[in-house]
Specification:
alpha+beta; 3 helices; disordered C terminus; 30% helix; signal; 128 residues
Length: 128
């Protein structure tokens, strides 16, 4: 009886785990940290735009955000080699900069629509 319950629990846990994971189209993994905050992990040589692409895809596909909604970078730039970037759906705790070159001032946020544009430019996915 105990063994059957243990096997059933292990099977259920292994089936549930993949549902919690999210991988963007560029291969970057995203982990929900709760409270509207999530972490886009490192996966090979990726520039800042690749992280924004993954964050926007997660926002629309996992969180149900609209194209006009914004996401904020929480991890301060520059990102160290091998590290990911933390994002939030709220401005509280945002970094001073998005880590991207902006004309007309610094901001730590982008609209989902703007960030999704980085997903269609393969050259932008490479290390900057």
């Amino acid at each position: 009886m105990f063994r059957s319950a243990l096997v059933a629990f292990a099977l259920a846990a292994s089936l549930a785990a993949p549902a919690l994971a999210f991988t963007a189209s560029n291969g970057l993994p995203v982990k929900d940290e709760g409270n509207g905050t999530f972490y886009v992990g490192y996966h090979g040589e990726s520039g800042a735009t690749a992280f924004w692409c993954a964050a926007a895809q997660y926002g629309t596909q996992a969180l149900g955000l609209r194209l006009t909604d914004h996401i904020w970078r929480v991890s301060p730039p520059p990102r160290r080699a091998g590290e990911g970037i933390r994002f939030s759906v709220r401005p509280e705790g945002a970094a001073q900069s998005s880590g991207l070159l902006h004309f007309g001032g610094e901001a730590a946020d982008l609209s989902i629509s703007h960030a999704l544009e980085f997903c269609s430019k393969p050259a932008d996915m490479l290390k900057e």
